[in-house]
Amino acid sequence: MEKVILNTKTFNVFCDESCHLLNDHQEVMVIGATWCPDSITKKISRDIRAIKVKHGLSEEFEIKWTKVSKSKVEFYLELVDYFFANQALRFRAVIVPHKSRLDHNRFNQDHNTFYYKICFYLLKNIIENQSLYRVYFDIKDTLGIERIEKLRRVLHNSGYDFNRDSIQRIQHIRSHEVQQLQIADLFIGALGYLHRGLNTNEGKLQIIEKIRFYTNRDLLRSTLPTERKFNVFVWESR
Fold it and tell me: pTM of the entire structure?
């Protein structure tokens, strides 16, 4: 039975990742999460499905950065509008801009251990005392059950940041079933596209500019750690 702490909110955190493997020939790694109170998670899902239908798409259409095109740009722009208009819906990303510069030997680690560290950096600015969190990762063959359990132990053992009561669960989900996870895919895709210096897809550029408009940031540098709506941390190797 899950332990209940009185006078708390429960939040659902939906995590996704892009180009996190060491030898995938991509220099930029992004891991990000959207999160919202559990009490309105279903309402947000209904709202996003309604936006899909409004633009002539099926409720089951999967929002993905790789699907962004000029023909569907109005749909994706409205999703961005919705995110920034909904005060309860938030996003955070950690960007590793230069994977080739990682020196794992220096820090006595392998790339999997580094991945856990980046997950820690992602979640540490999300999880707060006196709240409960359910953390969900997109199910991928690169993050099996064993790695989920390892991540759970890493988070629980990081004394001053997390305790065993705060994180109720960490588990896999399927992105095509969860609207908030699809929004995370959209935003980490936008950040990865920007940090790779790409500029050939007009629709994608419009989305990036819309996010820049709302955040009043260039998105190439870290936001303040206290930024709660759209938080970006650009990780640099030492």
Answer: 0.88
